[in-house]
Amino acid sequence: MKHKLLMILLACSLAGCGFTGTEDTADKTDDDRTADVAGEGSLAKDAESGEKTADQNREKAQKNKDEKQIPAAAGEVVISGDGSPATIAGVPIVNKKYGVSPDYAPGEDPTAAAAAMELIAAMQSQGLDVSDSWSGFRSYEYQSELYNGYVASSGQEAADTFSARPGFSEHQTGLAFDLKHASGALLENPAEAQWLLDHAHEYGFIVRYQEGWESITGYMAEPWHIRYVGDIAEDIHARNIPLETYLGAEGGDYR
Ligand SMILES: [Zn+2]
């Protein structure tokens, strides 16, 4: 036990403990905007109503409290050693930096699949164009076939922007789903894509690869690719940040 504690303390001092880093990042985005707005009008607002300022402070206190619940508080990437995904605060992470072994084949995660079915049913009930069938779990072998096909047709450099090398696909975790239109084409029409951005978190999913995040996630935007993360989806959605940023995980290109 003592050893473990020492290791954690050491990891914290080396890595600046991740938590502070993540909090800083959050401060630079949402909080700065809040602070700026409050700063600009603070005199007028004080005169108008002290109550309003008190409310804002309460909101800010609540926000700070929420920030302390970021999983990256653990600040540690746990490498399983058995070929399963690395985790941060219990959340599996697979990207170009963190792979899984060829024989890791958990199949489709049943909780995630049930949530995906609910999400699809909700979309269909609103008349949105989404198919019941998806592309979910992929074995290492299947991902090899896909990736090699893309390399053959588009070249490796291009293929790497939209297809994972075998052993680095989030689909191998059984937690990722590519949704499709009824035609079988990957879901990318604006109405459906926007619905996912607005509502996927209500079902425990995040839209994993978004525009502007390419250098962090390692992939071009994919409106159809959703990743099950469970309860933290809501917080990630509210912050509007990539999973890597949320967890304090390394992202970007292959090592
Ligand atoms: Zn996908």
Could you walk me through the main structural features you see in this protein, from its secondary elements to its overall organization?
The protein has two domains: 1-69; 77-247, Muramoyl-pentapeptide Carboxypeptidase, domain 2, CATH 3.30.1380. 49% of the residues lie in helices and 9% in strands. The protein is built from eleven helices and six strands. It has a three-stranded antiparallel beta sheet. The longest helix is centred in the first third of the chain and has 22 residues, at 19-40. 34% of the residues are buried. Mean pLDDT is 81; it is low at 1-50. Bound molecules: zinc ion (ZN). The site of zinc ion has 4 residues, from strand 4.
Q: If strands are numbered along the chain, what order do they take across the biggest sheet?
A: 1-2-3
Radius of gyration: 21 Å
Q: What is the CA-CA span between the terminal residues? A: 33 Å
What is CATH's topology name of the largest domain?
Muramoyl-pentapeptide Carboxypeptidase, domain 2
**Helical percentage:** 40-55%
The chain-level structural class is mainly alpha
CATH architecture of the largest domain: 2-Layer Sandwich
The SSE order reads HHHHEEEHHHEHEHEHH
Total DSSP helices: 11
Using brief descriptors, characterize the structure shown:
single chain; 255 residues; mainly alpha; globular; disordered N terminus; binds zinc ion
Q: What's the short story on this structure?
A:
By secondary structure, the protein is mainly α.
Topology of this protein?
Layout: H1 2-15, H2 19-40, H3 42-48, H4 50-67, E1 77-78, E2 86-88, E3 91-93, H5 110-125, H6 140-154, H7 156-162, E4 176-178, H8 190-199, E5 205-209, H9 214-217, E6 222-228, H10 233-239, H11 243-247
Helix pairs in contact: 2-4, 3-4, 6-7
